[in-house]
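Title: Prediction job returns without error message
Component: structure pipeline
Severity: low
Priority: P3
Assignee: unassigned

Description:
Job completed but the reporter wants confirmation the result is attached to the right record. Sequence as submitted:
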Amino acid sequence: MNTIRRLAIGALGAAATLLTPPAASAETPFAQASAKIEANGSVTHSKHVDDVWHPSRGVYCVLVSRLVDLDDDVAVHVTPVGRYDHPRSLSVERGARACVRRDLHRGTAERTFAVHSQAGSLWTTETVETAFYLTVS
């Protein structure tokens, strides 16, 4: 009986090791643009990202390069980084009003993505600071 239990535990451990997804990275070779953005809005790593700014709590604006083809269908992924007291929810909005800046040309709105970060429980939701990876494929 102990032998069967040890084999089962070993098999489960091996399966967990094989099925664990790799950590996300801003250095994605097939992405058109990617960045690791810290909770304070600073950029740790980036590829084809021209600018990032943090206009308000829980809102991050990412301006991708003109080299990124946004005319066809694109997939935009955001993944939270780190450990937090409450679950994080990230959403992406293209051309958001929250990211409008007077010093940028109007055409940049099409290349700007707003990332909204929220944390909450069953009864409350609030905007929060969150580090994340952004990838445009």
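Comment from assignee: result matches the submitted record. Residues 24-136 form one domain.
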